[in-house]
């Protein structure tokens, strides 16, 4: 394992911890959750690590607020277009994410 790999693994682990903490803090201190998102972003940028899809969906791409469905964001599924729409209620912007078509016949 190279030095870079070790660093990447370390950062990945750290980012996962930050998001776990963000989830825990959200109920009592939502502003702390946003701070954890910011820290995770800074970490990933420092080593040029692209955040995985599951992580990216947990915060707003525009205002970087930590998103919790039912609390500060709305998620709608469009089964015809196979698109998931996430609306951030902090900044009001929406983003569309195509979701996998595992059950698609073609
Ligand atoms: Zn937003």
Q: Could you explain how this protein is built, in words?
A:
The chain is of the alpha+beta class and 106 residues long. It has a single domain (3-98), classed as Single alpha-helices involved in coiled-coils or other helix-helix interfaces (Up-down Bundle), CATH 1.20.5.420. Helix content is 42%, strand content 16%. The chain has three helices and three strands. The chain has helices spanning 3-26, 30-46, 53-56, and strands at residues 73-78, 83-88, 94-98. The protein has a three-stranded antiparallel β-sheet, with no helix packed on it. Strand 1 and strand 2 form a beta hairpin. Helix 1 (3-26) runs antiparallel to helix 2 (30-46). The model has no long low-confidence stretch (mean pLDDT 91). Bound molecules: zinc ion (ZN). Zinc ion (ZN) binds next to loops.
> Kindly state the mean pLDDT as a whole number?
91
Chemical compounds bound to the protein: zinc ion
Helix content: 40-55%
Number of domains: 1
Percentage of residues in strands: 15-25%
Radius of gyration over C-alpha positions, nearest whole angstrom: 16 Å
CATH-scheme architecture: Up-down Bundle
- What low-confidence regions span 5 or more consecutive residues with pLDDT below 50? none
Shape: globular
Q: CATH class, please?
A: Mainly Alpha
How are the strands ordered across the major sheet? 1-2-3
Largest beta-sheet characterization: 3 strands, antiparallel
Q: How many β-strand stretches?
A: 3
Q: Number of helical runs?
A: 3
Instruction: Summarize the helix and strand pattern as letters.
Output: HHHEEE
How would you classify the helix and strand content by structural class? alpha+beta
CATH homology superfamily: Immunoglobulin FC, subunit C
CATH fold title:
Single alpha-helices involved in coiled-coils or other helix-helix interfaces
